Every structure is written in structure tokens, then in C-alpha cells.
Amino acid sequence: MSEEKRYTNCTKGGPVFVYVKDGRIVRVEPLELSPDDAESWAIEARGKIFSPPRKALISSWSLSVRAKVYAPNRILHPLKRVDFDPNGQRNPENRGKSGYEPISWNEALDILCSEIERIVRKDGPAAILTTASSHHSWGNVGYRTSAYHRFMAILGATYADHNPDSWEGWFWGAMHHWGFSWRLGIPEQYDLLEDALKYCEMIVFWSCDPHATLGTYGGHESVPWRFWLKELGVKMVFIDPFFNWTAMNFADKWIAPRPGTDTALALAIAYTWIKEGTYDKEYIEKRTLGFDKWRAYVLGEEDGVPKTPEWAEKICDVPAREIRALAREWAKRRTMLACGRGGMGGACRAAYGHEWARIMVLLAAMQGLGKPGRNIWGTTAGVPYNGKFYFPGYAEGGISGDATNTAAATLLSRGVTRIPVRWTVNEPQGQHVLRLLIPEAILNPPVRWRGKGFAGAFPEAQFREYKYPEDGFPLARMFWRYGTSYISTMTETNRWVKMYRSPKLEFVVSQAIWFEGEAKFADLILPACTNFERWDIGEWASSGGYTPHLSYSTNHRIIVLQMKCIEPLGESKSDYEIFSMVAKRLGFYEKYTENGMSELDWVKRIFEVSDLPKYISWEEFFKKGYFVVPIPKPYKSTPALRWFAEGRKRDTPDPGLPGGRLMGIPDGYGLGTPSGLLEFEASTLKRFDPNDPERPTIPKYIPSWEGCESPLAQKYQLQLISPHPRFSFFTQYDGKDSWINDIPDHRRKGKDGYDYWIIRINPVDAAKRGIKDGDLVKVFNDRGAVICIAEVTERVRPGVVHSYEGSAVYDPVDEPGGSPDRGGCINLLTPSRLMSKNASGMAPNSCLVEIVRWEGV
Amino acid sequence: MTKWAMIIDIDKCIACYACFNACKDEFWDNIYPPYSASIKKRGQTFIRLLKRERGKFPYVKVSYMPILCMQCEDPKCMKVAKNGAVYKRDDGIVIIDPVKAVGQKEIVNACPYGAVSWNDEKKLPQKCTLCVHRIEAGKNPRCVDVCPSGALIFGDLDDEKSEVSKKLRDGLAEPFHPEYGTKPKVFYINLHKMTKYFIAGSVAFEDTDDCAEGVEVRLTNLKTNEFKVAFTDFFGSFEFDGLEPHTEYLVELKYPGYQTKEIKVKLEEKDVYLGYIFLKRDY
């Protein structure tokens, strides 16, 4: 027996030490800093000194890596659907039902490349449609924006652009009031931890559950911060229809509006401030524009309806007196408003979710946004940070060399590749599809929408109308899917199932690690390996691009050599290797691999073009496996938006768009709005469509098109909310026979021994339907049905049911696309309608359902 | 000497299950002879969380409590074990010998805390070893190391300066179910969140319909006449937690200019949220 050897790697939830023995991973532990690593920061506030632990507080699910690496449903060989014959009967209607047979890599490449050649020769490359799941792995080489983008760029497929799925409302709404287009509508968070520790007296968590959503990639790094704030006596109020996980530890008060009515509650807070004169008039005067118009709306001068707390109570079912109490305390105390990761939250993924996000910005402005202790801060980011040290995040394109569709400009200028590529079909003159509309694009073209995915160049970018097919372009006949998550992460996803079973898709190839979700609808499956089976390099929680400096959500900037810990399982291969093999067949191997570069060569290249060599040699880094970025001493804190509140030039290290510029007034003063001011009336919206009733120039309460006030609520009486899951990252840690499924707050076993997805229901609603805790239930509406296990709990308000998105398992009891799913893909039920007339965002949290006990088929 | 112990602060548990995940990672498919055999990937765990939900919408409290082998000084599992299959080390750690214990299901049933599980594949009773293989290498148990909030504290009871000793001296930590008489060396802080009850309410002024902040609330135990005083917060809310059930209490609400209000509450084994209580102006 050999000794255990320690490797390093990084997950979506943090860096790990990976222990390997006899070629098998035996243990995965959080990375611990050693004494010779850079010093930790220390913040002095209110007579105390706060400093983080010198170990990575990685996400809980990151500790279950072994279960998913060695999952029984790992795809170990290339697979072909048994009744798919590329030269004969293709039987697309059997997708999702037929079995698979293992074939050799040679056979797989034969099928794939002959299909590509057949389709491209007839219709050109745009007839191949492709898209990647948002979250597949970690690292700068193997990530979708890197190896995948480089390959698809050269191949030239039509790319389905991603919508800003987790922060729709901030993108489509908030951006027009405070700019931050280069951050897709989400604000900077620099140094807000120190600011909060020093000055904050109250935090209002509004649609915000950091213990579940972890500041996206920050693991549990911010957990100690909230305990520190609690210790300092900071009051915490939670506004959420679900008594969420963070509320469990910290709520001094839980306020539970009906889903979709948060904007009414917010308007009543503004009303109280205006009536009582308790807002920051000087700030409004000096830093904002258009307040009077919004004020008139709030007071009812515009529409005859004063937005009083009593008015709001009738809509959101929160007592008027509590709205007044919150408004008064908020005005009295230095208050942080926490909305998701400082600009996210389930309330923004709903019908007119942009109105909520817009009003959040305006409320914060009325209390002096940017002044000490008063900000929009998700409590998950903003540690003392070295923003000068350059290391790329995943959105910076890695090896893609594609500066149009990734934020690769900086990496290119530093020489990441000698052979840059262009994804011509994915450039402005090419063809595009919005991910949310893929099923319609295939089944029922043409489709139209606004905004090319992450359109962040400037606020106007999201107004541009697109169509598919683009004039004269071919319809897609082949779909190359990378990742398998969409049945549980997109909306009304029986659409996807139906699309996959249509002959309009002549050929579907899935590049996947696990046999789950959409993989079961492919004609050909290419087995990819995990990032523990290949080389890569990545910084914890760093996305770069539109979210620069996101590693300020971790206590230390940790850059990890993601070592190849074990050989790829079975015949699986790294994505880079898969693409290299295909490139060889198609004749662009040299271009794709830059003349035969291995993954480790690319890792070294990225090391070299970053700032790492200024601090550590390649040999030392290779041996040690990670580097902790030091913080400059003395450290100068530059809190987010303090410069704006004080009318100073911007002093935060926000880099703006790579290769672009920071929006705003050219001399560095002001926000990224046309006026440079925080605009209560958005001039970009006014210029685009001043009469859009669904996104007016000032934000309003607009009853949801599928909410408690809709006619449909007579038939389907429960409002379903489906936030991001707590015990998985999207579908990544669910299913796979992982022990995660034994967590009784994640899945629960039915009497039949099956691991069912949980739906949470209030005892009042459960009693009305004869449902008891642990009963199997059918959750349904006109879009489909999902079998879940009921958790009867006071943690959801009456009239609401709560079930996470992110089930990895799609398991229809009968015909796929037309029968109840007992895997738990709750998004089968959510509406595919876009957020509002001109905002092409998803709105899964506007969903009406009914629930009955389920006795089986 | 050394006596290993653990203290768990229930208030700090965020129910992230990092302890559970790390424990599974440590013990699934891994053996640590002579202390432990591997555990099953699914359906078996050395550490689980007890959940308690209290109150009623819109006043709800939730707490979680990790349960693992209590490392009893007087372990019941040891008493039923044959052939010395369960033994206690000098440092207090109780070990189920993975060879000798094969087939001895009684060991599972003997534990009053339900901390011993049955591995049906190996026909073996198994439980937390406090990661003795790690302790011997100078490390903490896995669950302690990964807990993001520091809810789990591990240390030596025989070391006066250890944090566990300090916390015990401060009288903050107590064993779960001491009446089982097994003398656990796992202790809990804020145990009342799992075992006791609250009376809470919200107060508003009837004339203005505003939340009543700063109302003096006196809670008297009518059995003992002992009382506690609290003041309502800006939402008019008050709460008395850690109360004994099967007891009658008197809640008195006082605010200058308003009539004093008295409410009798018979507290049984269910937390009580009184809802909104309105104070009338005293003219």
C-alpha cells in the first residue's frame, strides 16, 4: 500500500486539499493556511478587533466531492442511444426513453464529426446550436468560457446566450437608476465589511439568505461576520415569504409578504419616510435626479392611490403598523439593505422583478446610500482586498482567446495565447438565441427578444432587439449541449423535454459527467471528467468580467493550482481533451491547442501572464499548490459608493470593463447613468420607451401576471417560490447517489425508499388538503406535475409553498414531458413568460400551483 | 491525564451540515484500524442534526442540534457488549472494536441517544470515534475543523486552560438528557432552545395602531412567584425563552399613559405566541 499524497484543487465553494491513495481520492479537506502564507486582515471596530480564521470555510457541499466523483451514474464510456442510427432511423421521439450502449471513442468521434460535416456542409456552422450550463466546474482552463468557448469559436456554432438568471431584476431594472452596467446592475461591495462593523446598526435582509446562497462562491466565509455583527448588537430584520436559514440564527423580526408584493411593501416604507420627513433630503438634493416625480407617485398624486402602509397591508398581508415600525427604525438607525449578494434575491426573479430591484436602490438612496453604515450590502462581500494584484477570473476567458464573448482583453494583452480566435457566428453580425427561448426557437421559430444575454457594455445594450433565425441564417438542426442542468434550472421545462423529442433536432450530443437531467435526451453522450481528474488553475470565488473582484467574498484571496489528483475515471476525458480530439478530426487541432499545448502548459501560461510570478516562482507554486495574495500595508479602505455619497472622485479599485471604460461622467465622478446622478426617474428608460406600462420610467407596484391577485389564483391557490438550493450548487451536488441526499432538509425518503424532493407547506394549507408531514404530494398546474414529499412547517407563510430549484434528477413516472416527475424538477411548473414586455428575464418565482396527496400512478 | 470532550453551542449551529458531510468524507470507504471500519455511503451517519421548530406563523423559531456519540463516562453500549467489543480508553474515548463487535446489534439498541448505527452490510454497530485517528495525529475531529461558525469546541477537560474547561466552569454548558445517567462528555450551550419553551407576544397601542416599543413586560411564574422583566422592541415584540412547561404564568404589560394589561398563560409542552396585544389609552 502506498502512502497518502496531498493535492490541491478548488470547488465552486472553495479550495481543498485532496488526499489520494493508490490512485483513489480518500479525503477532501478545506485548505488550511500555513504560517508562512500572507497575513490575514484585522479590522478594528467598536473597540474590538476582528480577524478571520486561517482556513477556508468552504461550502458544506464541497465536502461531498468524493460522493460525486465516484457516483454510480458517472458516464464512463461514450454512449450511443440504442435506436439512433445516423445513417438510418434516428427515432428522435424516443429520446428520454431509449437505453444506451457503450461505443468506442473512435465510433463516437466518427458519428459526431460526420454529423458536423453533414450539417455544416449543407447549412453552415450556424446550424449547430450550443450552450453550456452556467456552472460546470472550476478553473481558468477547463471552464466553459475557456476550453469550450475556444472550441466553439473555431467551430462557429450558434450560441445560446445566458440570461442573468440569478439577478434578473437588477440587470433589467436597477441598472437604469445607478448604472453599474459593467457589473450587470449589481453594485460594488468594496470594504463594506469594515464599514458595517464600524457603523451599521441594523440590517434589513430583503429576499436574502446568505446561509443558503453563500454569496455565490464564497462558501461559509461570511458566516463569522454575521455572528460578529450580532455580537455588536446590530439588529437584523428578514423580509422573505420563507423563514430562511439566515433568519433562523439572526432574525430579530421576520416579515413575510406574499410573493410578488414586495414592491408594495417598499413603497409604503417610502411613503412613511416622505410623510414623516425622515429621509436624507440633502442627499436627494445633491446626488439624485427625478425624486419629485417618484414622490408624487408614492403620495398618490399621480394615480390617486397614496401608497400608505394600510394600502400595502391589503396587498402584501403585512400589518401596516409593522411597515411603519420598520420604516421608522430604518430612518433612525444606520441601516444596511441586504438583497441577495448585494443585488440578487428571489424577489428579482419574478414578474416585474425589476420593479423590486429598482425600488431597493431608491429606498437605499433615500437613506443616504454610500454613507457610513448605509449601503446595499449582502453581508457576503467586501473584505480588505488587494485589487491591484492581477489574476484572472473565469469570465476572463481563460484560453478562449475570444475577446468579444468573454472578458479576455486583459488576458490577451498579457499574452495568454499566440493564436487568438473569433467566434464569428457569435459576433454582432451573427446569429443568436436567448437560452430561455431555445425550445421555442427549435419548435416554433421565429422568436424575438431584447438584449444579448449579459449585455453590460452600457444600459442601452439590453434594449436591442434580436430575432432567431437571423435574416438568412439557418435554423439549428444539431444541438451540442455541455452540462445537463436545464430541466430543473430553466422555466416551464417540459418545453425542453418536448424539444428534445422533436425531429426538428436531427442530432443531439451531450458532453456530460453524470447520466442525469438532459443527458438522457442525447443521441450521443461524450463522457467528461471532473476537475479533480485534470489540470487547471483558479482563484477561489473569482469570476472576473462582469463581476470583478468577487474574491472579496472570501477572507483571503487564494489562487489554487488545481492538480490532476487522479486519472479520469473509465474512458472519461477532460473537456479540453475531448475538444482537442474533435478538433483533430475536423482539422483545426493546431489552432485549437495552439500547436499542441497540454492543459498543464496552459496552466503554466496563465500563471505566467498573471501577477503570480512577481511573488512566487512556478516551481514553488507547483510544489505548494496555492498562493495567498497579500494585502498592502498600510491598508487604505475605500468603501463602496462612499465617494459618490461624498461627491468625490471614484476611489474604489473597480476596474470597469476589460478593454472598456468605467461608465459615468468621464472625469471619474458620478455613477454610470447618463446624468452621473442616482436617477429616481431613469433617463435611459425614458429615452427607450417612456410609455412602457410594464417598466415605467419610475418604478411602480405592478400586480404580478401570475400572483396572489391573478384570476388564475382561483384555480391554483398556492404561490410557489423556488430559490437557489441550500445543499447543492444548482444540480451539481444533488442526485448522483450522494450522501447529500441523506440530509433531511435536502431530500427525504418516501415509504418506497425513493429520495423525494421537498416541498414546504404551511400547516393551515396542509390541513385544508389533508396533507401530513412526510406525505407524497403532487404539485401541479397546467404546465405539468412534480411529485414531492411534503414538509409541513410554519416556516412558510400561508398561501405559499417553497421548493428549491436544482434537482439533478428528472424521472418522469411515464411519458417524458407529459407525466409527473418524481425527481423533483420543480421548474417544470414555473412560467416561461418573460419578466415584462421589454425585459427578457426569467420569472420562476411567479408561479401558481395546487397540491394534492399522491397515492401513485 | 487527558479527557477529551466536546461542547456544542446550539445558538451557533447554522444547520449547514458541514459536520455531517465532513464525517461522511472521513469515514465512507475509509478504514482506521483498530478504531473503525468504513461506513455506508448512504443511510448511515455518525453525526446527525436534531431539528426543533417552535412557534406559529408569523412568530417562528428554529434550532438545530448536532447529535453524535456522547463519549459517556458510564457508557451503556459498553455494558451490553460481549468480548470487550466496546471499551473506553484512558483519554475517555469510547471505541466499538470493528472486529469484535461484528453481529452485536444489542450495542445499537443500548445507546439512549441513538448515536450507534447498524451497518447492515458489515453486520456491525458503528459510531463516532471522535476521530481518534486524527486526535492521535494531533488534529481536531473533522466536524470541529469544518464548522464555519465555531459551534463545535473540542478540548481536554483535564486541562484547566482549555476552552472546554473554561466553558464548563462558566456553567454555560450542560449534558443532553443527564437523567440517562451515562455522564456524557459532549455538552451543549443554549440547550434550552431544544428542551424548554417560550412565551412571546407583540404589543400595539390601540389608539394609534402603532407597534408599542419600550413596554415593560413582567412574567411571573405563578407556582414560584419568581418573575422576569423584559421590554418590547421597536416592533412591539417581547419573548421569554427557557421556560418550564406545565406551569401557569402571568404576563403583565405596563406603559405610561396606557392601561396595564394582564394575561394568564398556562404553558404546556408547546411554545406560546400571544399574537398582537393592544394597550388601551388610560384617560
Please name the defining characteristics of this protein.
heterodimer; A: 857 residues; alpha/beta; N-terminal domain of TfIIb; Rossmann fold; Dimethylsulfoxide Reductase, domain 2; 4 domains; eight-stranded mixed beta sheet; six-stranded mixed β-barrel; 32 strands; B: 283 residues; alpha+beta; Alpha-Beta Plaits; Immunoglobulin-like; 2 domains; four-stranded mixed beta sheet; four-stranded antiparallel beta sheet
List the helices and strands and how they pair.
The complex is a heterodimer of chains A (857) and B (283).
Chain A lengths: L4 E7 L2 E8 L2 E7 L12 E3 L2 E3 L14 H5 L9 E3 L18 E3 L2 H19 L4 E5 L11 H12 L2 E4 L6 H11 L13 H8 L2 E5 L3 H4 L9 H9 L3 E5 L5 H6 L2 E3 L6 H15 L4 H7 E2 L1 H9 L9 H8 L3 H13 L2 E4 L14 H14 L8 E2 L32 H5 L18 E3 L3 H6 L3 E4 L14 E4 L9 E5 L3 H4 L4 H7 L6 E6 L11 E4 L8 E4 L18 E5 L12 H12 L2 H5 L5 H11 L8 H7 L1 E3 L13 H4 L32 E2 L3 H6 L29 E4 L25 E3 L5 E7 L1 H6 L7 E6 L2 E9 L7 E3 L45 E6 L4
Parallel strand pairs in A: 8-9, 8-19, 9-16, 10-11, 10-14, 11-12, 13-25, 14-15, 19-20, 20-21, 26-31, 28-30
Antiparallel strand pairs in A: 1-2, 2-3, 4-5, 6-7, 6-21, 17-18, 22-23, 23-24, 26-32, 27-28, 28-31, 29-30, 29-32
Helix pairs in contact in A: 2-19, 4-14, 9-12, 9-13, 9-14, 12-13
Chain B lengths: L3 E6 L8 H10 L20 E9 L2 E9 L8 H5 L5 E3 L5 E3 L9 H5 L6 E3 L4 E3 L5 H4 L6 H5 L5 E5 L6 H7 L3 E2 L11 E4 L2 H4 L1 E9 L10 E6 L5 E5 L5 E7 L3 E8 L6 E7 L4 E8 L4
Parallel strand pairs in B: 1-10, 11-17
Antiparallel strand pairs in B: 1-8, 2-3, 4-5, 6-7, 9-10, 11-14, 12-13, 12-15, 15-16
